[in-house]
């Protein structure tokens, strides 16, 4: 049951369209945030990095949690399995917690749900609050969720559904932030399935 909870130097740099604040780095940085950094945010990191690389966009992508329950751990094995089923590869991420300095280091900080967003805004400096954008901003039209649901207490279907939702949402994120279009490897189906795209 769902609980509604690297950069590649060979790639060209494409300036994001929404750079409202000066970048702290020549390469733009995106940080995804959830609670424990073992399910939703590492999945978002892996999916985002994959899509940006396929689009030829140079950016640094990372993820973290607002709680320290799983510091140093790999992503949940069920999430890694769901990502593999969708064709994504794990690149060795280990869980870490958000710190105040992240607010200055990253250009876009993207919490997965409303509670994550409140925690992010509590931890980072108020001067960095404009960098925080909820993942739900890029949800597909008609999506039944208002935030990325936490699959931790669910089964394989729940993890597959989160991967599908993040995949479709990430294509919209890349389109808005970087002005590039991408045909996703999977189509978000709100019945929890992951269907392969014929274009990939």
What is the fold named in CATH at topology level? Rossmann fold
Structural class: alpha/beta
Stretches with pLDDT under 50, minimum 5 residues: 1-24, 186-200
Cross-sheet strand order for the largest sheet: 2-1-3
Number of helices: 5
Ends apart, CA distance between termini: 31 Å
Number of domains as seen in the coordinates? 1
Bulk shape:
globular
Report the portion of residues in β strands. 5-15%
For this structure, the quaternary state is single chain
Q: Could you name the CATH homologous superfamily?
A: Response regulator
* Main sheet characteristics: 3 strands, parallel
Structural Rg: 15 Å
What is the count of β-strands?
Answer: 5
Mean model confidence by pLDDT: 84
CATH level 1 name: Alpha Beta
CATH architecture: 3-Layer(aba) Sandwich
Descriptive terms for the model:
single chain, 200 residues, alpha/beta, Rossmann fold, two-stranded antiparallel ribbon, 5 strands, disordered N terminus, disordered C terminus
SSE blueprint and pairings:
Blueprint: E1 29-34, H1 40-55, E2 60-65, H2 77-85, H3 102-105, E3 108-111, H4 114-123, H5 156-178, E4 186-188, E5 194-196
Parallel strand pairs: 1-2, 1-3
Antiparallel strand pairs: 4-5
Describe the fold and architecture.
The chain is an alpha/beta fold and 200 residues long. The chain has one domain: Rossmann fold. It contains 5 helices and 5 strands; from the N terminus they run βαβααβααββ. The chain is globular. The N terminus and C terminus are likely disordered.
């Amino acid at each position: 049951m769902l609980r509604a909870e690297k950069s590649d130097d060979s790639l060209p740099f494409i300036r994001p369209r929404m750079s409202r604040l000066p970048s702290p780095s020549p390469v733009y940085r995106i940080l995804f945030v959830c609670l424990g950094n073992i399910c939703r945010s590492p999945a978002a990191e892996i999916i985002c990095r994959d899509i940006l690389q396929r689009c030829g966009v140079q950016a640094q992508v990372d993820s973290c949690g607002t709680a320290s329950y799983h510091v140093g751990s790999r992503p949940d094995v069920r999430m890694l399995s769901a990502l593999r089923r969708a064709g994504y590869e794990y690149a060795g991420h280990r869980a870490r917690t958000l710190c105040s300095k992240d607010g200055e280091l990253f250009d876009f900080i993207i919490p997965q749900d409303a509670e994550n967003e409140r925690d992010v805004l509590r931890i980072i400096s108020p001067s960095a609050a404009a960098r925080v954008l909820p993942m739900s901003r890029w949800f597909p039209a008609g999506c039944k969720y208002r935030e990325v649901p936490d699959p931790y207490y669910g089964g394989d279907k729940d993890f597959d559904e989160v991967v599908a939702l993040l995949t479709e949402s990430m294509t919209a994120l890349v389109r808005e932030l970087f002005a590039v279009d991408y045909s996703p490897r999977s189509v978000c189906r709100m019945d929890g399935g992951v269907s392969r795209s014929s274009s990939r």
